[in-house]
Amino acid sequence: AQTVTQSQPEMSVQEAETVTLSCTYDTSESDYYLFWYKQPPSRQMILVIRQEAYKQQNATENRFSVNFQKAAKSFSLKISDSQLGDAAMYFCAYRLGGAQKLVFGQGTRLTINP
Amino acid sequence: NAGVTQTPKFQVLKTGQSMTLQCAQDMNHNSMYWYRQDPGMGLRLIYYSASEGTTDKGEVPNGYNVSRLNKREFSLRLESAAPSQTSVYFCASSSIRDRYNYGYTFGSGTRLTVV
């Protein structure tokens, strides 16, 4: 079974600085997708960024980027120029290609210090 | 607005009571899901329905039943609530044809407390 592990229950960063959230996963498949979701206090699940395993290039969405290390099964999220609105719970998730179920990590609570 | 609608948003139950969480989507998605979120455990899949007329167990199905009433609606029932079912419940839907985010849309969640 596929598993996703986020080893940092909590992280904090100063406003305007850069922070990296870690995620590792376990799979024997070659066709899969990885996601980072943001959950603010409103509880809404918001897709931040996604990565297709077959793509070597790391995905980027404005201040958010990933470091995808396929051989190491690592998928970290880097947030640059952190803003107060980035404070939230962040979940890493995995989906097998062809299937649609998401498998989530335990989550990392990110605090932004002004 | 298009999306996934869950009701209720909050609920308190006594141990042994039953209730049904309702979920409806208006995006013509084929697949629907129920997850529960607990501190330190992320979101875990309870049941899912890959298409109308089918349902399958997820990672934590014990104590729950589901009904895919039609393409739009997917309900989750607790027949005899237990304190261990205190959690936040999310409904989601997806369509493999939605290329932007691979079709995952989440409801706003239901906070359920069993006392």
Summarize the structure in words:
- Chain A is an all-beta fold and 114 residues long.
- Chain A has strands at residues 3-5, 10-14, 19-21, 24-26, 32-39, 46-52, 60-61, 64-69, 74-79, 88-96, 102-104, 108-113.
- Chain A is built from no helices and twelve strands.
- In chain A, strands 2, 5, 6, 10, 11 and 12 form a six-stranded mixed sheet that branches.
- Chain B is mainly beta.
- Helix content of chain B is 0%, strand content 50%.
- Chain B has no helices and eleven strands.
- Chain B has strands spanning 4-7, 10-13, 19-25, 31-38, 42-49, 56-57, 64-68, 74-78, 87-94, 105-106, 110-114.
- In chain B, strands 2, 4, 5, 6, 9, 10 and 11 form a seven-stranded mixed sheet that branches. A four-stranded antiparallel sheet of chain B has the order 1-3-8-7, with no helix packed on it.
- Chain B is globular and about 40 Å long.
- The mean pLDDT of chain B is 92.
- The A-B interface holds A 4, 6, 9, 33, 42-45, 47, 50, 91, 95, 100-107 and B 31, 33, 35, 40-45, 48, 50, 58, 88, 90, 92, 94, 96, 101-104, 106, 108-109, 111.
